[in-house]
Amino acid sequence: MTRQHDHSFAKPATSYAEQVAILERRGMRIDDRASAEFYLQHLNYYRLSAYWLPFEATHAPHAFVPGTRFADALNLYLFDRNLRLLVLDAIERIEVSIRSQWAYQMSRRHGPHAYLDAGLAANRGRWESDLAKLEKEVQRSDEIFIRHLLKTYSEKLPPAWAVCEIMSLGLLSRWYGNLKPMPTRSAIASVYGVNERVLGSWLHHLTTVRNTCAHHGRLWNREFTVTPLIPKTKPLSLQHQFQPGSRRLYNTLTILLHCMDIVAPRHSWRRRLKALFEQHSPPTRAMGFPPQWDQLQIWQ
Question: Which InterPro entries does the record associate with it (predicted)?
Answer without folding.
Answer: Abi_system_AbiD/AbiF, Abi_system_AbiD/AbiF-like
